[in-house]
């Protein structure tokens, strides 16, 4: 597998705080990787160093075979970056915003308009950014990051401000981008999002990379019991679900039964704990 991103011993310190602590990470070309972690785990700082936005204290990061730092002008047209906090030019409409971003990369205005349609903002094309809702502004930010057809896309909590319907629509968009051969890396707090979209998931805490594997492998490694919920509300917990299901079948009690194995959320909580993080 050819590496689109190669991170070796990447570290960022602020005084005594090790925001990112010796992370090694390889992302293959065309891979979709999700990065999970509690608040303050180091996800955004890691991404910013890989994107070339922040200087590492130690270690290195390369994207598409080129060093990310010092900020590499040859790399910029080949990557797309959607930051956690959207930033736009003042007093411009949504259409003017994306046309401006497109012009920076020599992309035709017609292509930019296509992206407005893909993220569902055609009806808001003539609205100024300050008139957009949080979710609409987030979708415009993503469109601006993708308008130049980058090979590698970095998305920092792209669905944080979206309602459930908009989230699912964006999942379809991101899956399509990845299916067309692009490499996608996103941070998210939504376990279902990472489980549905990512080929592999990295879980970070206290600046360290704890695990990096497929969602299925991480869940299997947890060895969590299976929960079987019956229509009357009874919950059965077992490590031999086939035996239990067969017993229920003999009793004609399978109608409406819900079977749930371990989830990525179970893995996350097992690794990072359950205490509240501000």
UniProtKB/TrEMBL annotation:
Keywords: Antibiotic resistance, ATP-binding, Cell membrane, Membrane, Nucleotide-binding, Translocase, Transport. Residues 5-231 form the ABC transporter domain. Pfam families: ABC_tran (PF00005). Its main location: membrane. It is found in: Cell membrane. GO terms for molecular function: ATP binding; ATP hydrolysis activity. GO terms for cellular component: plasma membrane. The keyword Nucleotide-binding applies. It is a peripheral membrane protein. One of its GO terms (biological process) is response to antibiotic. Belongs to the ABC transporter superfamily. This is ABC-2 type transport system ATP-binding protein. The lineage of its organism: Bacteria, Bacillati, Actinomycetota, Actinomycetes, Propionibacteriales.
């Amino acid at each position: 597998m050819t590496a689109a991103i190669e991170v070796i011993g990447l570290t960022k310190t602020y005084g005594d705080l090790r925001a990112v602590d010796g992370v090694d990470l390889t992302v293959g070309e065309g891979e979709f990787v999700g990065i999970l972690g509690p608040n303050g785990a180091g996800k955004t700082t890691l991404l910013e160093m890989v994107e070339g936005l922040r200087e590492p204290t130690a270690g290195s990061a390369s994207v598409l075979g080129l060093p990310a730092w010092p900020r590499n002008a040859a790399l910029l047209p080949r990557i797309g970056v959607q930051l956690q906090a959207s930033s736009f030019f003042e007093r411009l409409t949504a259409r003017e915003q994306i046309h401006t971003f497109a012009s920076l990369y020599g992309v035709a205005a017609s292509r930019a308009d296509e992206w407005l349609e893909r993220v569902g903002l055609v009806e808001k094309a003539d609205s100024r950014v300050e008139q957009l809702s949080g979710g609409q502004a987030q979708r415009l930010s993503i469109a601006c990051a993708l308008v130049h057809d980058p090979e590698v896309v970095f998305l920092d909590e792209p669905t944080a401000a979206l309602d459930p319907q908009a989230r699912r629509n964006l999942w379809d968009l991101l899956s399509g981008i990845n299916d067309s051969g692009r490499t996608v890396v996103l941070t998210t707090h939504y376990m279902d999002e990472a489980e549905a979209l990512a080929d592999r998931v990295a879980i970070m805490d206290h600046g360290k990379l704890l695990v990096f594997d497929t969602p299925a492998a991480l869940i299997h490694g947890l060895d969590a019991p299976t929960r079987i919920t019956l229509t009357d509300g009874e919950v059965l917990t077992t490590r031999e679900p086939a035996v239990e299901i067969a017993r229920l079948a003999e009793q004609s009690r399978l109608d409406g039964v819900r079977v749930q194995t371990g989830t990525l959320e179970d893995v996350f909580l097992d690794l990072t704990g359950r205490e509240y993080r501000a």
